[in-house]
Structure formats: C-alpha cells, structure tokens
TrEMBL record:
Residues 8-347 form the Enoyl reductase (ER) domain. Pfam families: ADH_N, ADH_zinc_N. This is Iditol 2-dehydrogenase. Its cofactor is Zn(2+). It comes from Oceanibaculum pacificum. The keyword Signal does not apply. SMART domains: PKS_ER. PANTHER family: ALCOHOL DEHYDROGENASE-RELATED, L-THREONINE 3-DEHYDROGENASE.
C-alpha cells in the first residue's frame, strides 16, 4: 500500500509499505477518510519533521495522518467480540498509553502516567494510507447516521473543539468569543451555535470569517481591521465582555485578547498548540476572578459523546471539508493546506 510521509521542510513522500497484519489485541482499519489537521503542519513544515521536534520515533518512515475513520477488516487474537468486529464502522483515538493507569482506564490515553507510548500519525503509522493497524481499545464506534468524513473530523479537530467547550461548561445563554476559524475554531463555532450559544468569531482571513457566518457565528471580527479587539467584543456584549472565550489560533496576541475579552468571573480556554503568551496576572486574571483553562484533545468517551451529539442534532460536519484528495495528490493537498486561508481537507484513500 502507499502511505504519505512527512519529510519536513514542507516536503513529503508517497512511499510503499506492506499491508498491516493485526497482532494480539489489535485490528486493521480500512481507511475511508483521513482528515488533515492543523497540528500536522508543524511536522510538515519543520526541517527534520517530528524527530527534530523531540518525538521518539519508530525506525523507518512513519505514515502521517491522525484523523482516522474507516471499517475494521481484520481482528487479531484476544479482541473481545463487543470491542471490535469485522465490518465495524469506527473512528480511532490516535494515542496509545499503558491502558491501565487512572487516565488510560478512563479514556485519556494521551495523559498516560507512563507517558504516551504512541501518537498515531506522528510516532506510529497513521491514517494517510489505505490501511492502519491499531489496538482495538483505541476504536470508537461511528454512529450509522454519520459519514466517514464526519468521523474523521471528530477524530481530532471537531473532537478537540467539543472537548474545549465541555471544559468551559458552555450553556445556551452564554456568549463565547472564538479566536481563529481554522478547522478547530470553525468546529467550535458550529458546535457552540448548535448548543444555543451566541458566537463571536475572530480571524484575519475574510474567507474564514465568511465560513464562520455559515456555521452559525452571530458576530465576526477581523483583528487586522479592528484597532481594539477587546473593546469590540465588549461593545458586542453590552460593555461586559464575553462569558467565555476559546483560542484556537495559538497566536500570542490572540491568546492575550482571549483572556482580556471575558467579563468578570469569565473563563478563557487555550486549545491551539505552540508559542506562548504574556499576561498581567493581577489585572488580567486575579482581580477579575478569571479562570484560565488548557484543553488537550478529548477522551474516547468524549469522542463518542461528540459523535452522538452531532448525529442526534443532524449537524452538517461534512460542510467543514472544502477539499477532497486522493493519496497521489498529497503534495498539492498540503501545499494548499499550508496557506491556512482555506477550509479543511480530507484524503479518501479508498
């Protein structure tokens, strides 16, 4: 089979790999949809790729892609019948931990006490290929009502947005400011609107702001065209500020604005990876009773809850995807995605 490999420095290869065979406790997924995630760009862009960023790699090239969704086509020995079966429609939680510590046993394998043993698509073979091998316990059933593309989105970007909104305790009477309308931020806009909240969407791309309106944003703000972003949010909230904010951009200035724009007793959540932020702890946090939250993806239970919410409310997550690609067009796909001005892409390996 062919698999996409990030070579780093904005280069990638399409290499030949043997079709995988499941070992004890493992399954093989035939990948029907493999989403492109913004966090992949750091491995795509960085000279030397994931290894240069300090990840402990397996020997040899690693297949990229950590938004897997497909159908189980092979089951290894020792897999309980209720856990996985041939023909099962499944998403995959793209981490492997020890499986038994307090975090792994509650579905938070990325928080494993012993450290993450595998990040699929980074340190272990991911989903930018026809087949993917993984532990059966990392599978999350895909509701019949949902497409494989929606399942791929939930497997990271949309699931990450869901996890952050749950951490914030979003309610229908809240106003939330969402900084960055890439795949994660746009997912947060769509989900927050579906929960009944009022959404203020921020991005420097007019195209992404237009999409935010399509996905339910009530107010849009372009920081490039707005002298005082925090004041603009206060003006849109009767002078009080947003109840909640979520930064999906990872830009230091946006993170600071996300904290400053919430009202007294408000909550701000950082979900975008990388870079830093400078805050006046007394004035930005303490003296306004502001809660600052970090949110890193989601648990297997949260992934299942997100899928069920989307299915029950018939949310059009497929609309996130603006481009569909075959594996042989990987170079073109990542060059476009690297521009970060367009929507989300997905590989359809089958």
């Amino acid at each position: 089979m062919k698999g996409i490999v990030f070579a780093g420095d904005r280069k990638l290869d399409l290499l030949d790999f043997a079709d995988p065979t499941p070992g004890p406790g493992e399954v093989v997924l035939e990948i029907m949809a493999s989403g492109m995630c913004g966090s992949d760009l750091k491995f795509y862009r960085t000279p030397g790729g994931a290894k240069a960023l300090g990840f402990k790699m397996q020997d040899g090239p690693i297949i990229a892609g950590h938004e897997p969704c497909g159908v189980v086509v092979a089951v290894g020995p020792g897999v309980p019948e209720k856990q996985a079966w041939v023909g099962m429609r499944a998403m995959q939680h793209h981490y492997r931990g020890c499986g038994v510590c307090p975090h792994c046993s509650t579905g938070w394998m990325q928080l494993c006490v012993d450290g993450v043993a595998e990040v699929y698509g980074v340190t272990g073979h991911g989903a930018h290929a026809r087949y993917m091998k993984c532990p059966a316990r990392t599978l999350v059933a895909l509701p019949e009502e949902l497409s494989f593309k929606t399942g791929a989105a939930i497997s990271c970007g949309t699931g990450t947005a869901w996890g952050a909104l749950q951490r914030l305790g979003l309610q229908g009477d809240h106003t939330i400011a969402i900084f960055g309308q890439g795949p994660v931020g746009l997912s947060a806009t769509q989900l927050a609107a579906a929960m009944g909240a009022r959404v203020i969407a921020l991005d420097t791309s007019p195209e992404r702001l237009a999409r935010a309106v399509e996905f339910g944003a009530d107010v849009v703000i372009n920081p490039k065209e707005t002298p005082d972003v925090v004041q603009a949010i206060r003006d849109a909230t009767h002078g009080l500020g947003a109840h909640l904010s979520l930064d999906a951009s990872s830009a230091p200035q946006a993170r600071a604005q996300a904290v400053k724009c919430v009202r007294t007793w408000g909550k701000a959540c950082f979900v975008g990876e990388g870079d830093g932020v400078t805050l006046d702890v007394s004035n930005d946090l303490l003296r306004r009773q502001v809660t600052l939250i970090g949110s890193w993806t989601f648990s297997t239970i949260g992934q299942a809850d997100c899928a069920r919410f989307i299915a029950d409310r018939k949310i059009d997550v497929d609309h996130l995807f603006t481009h569909e690609w075959t594996l042989d067009r990987a170079v073109e796909a990542y060059q476009l995605f690297d521009s970060q001005t367009t929507g989300k892409g997905v590989f359809l390996p089958g």
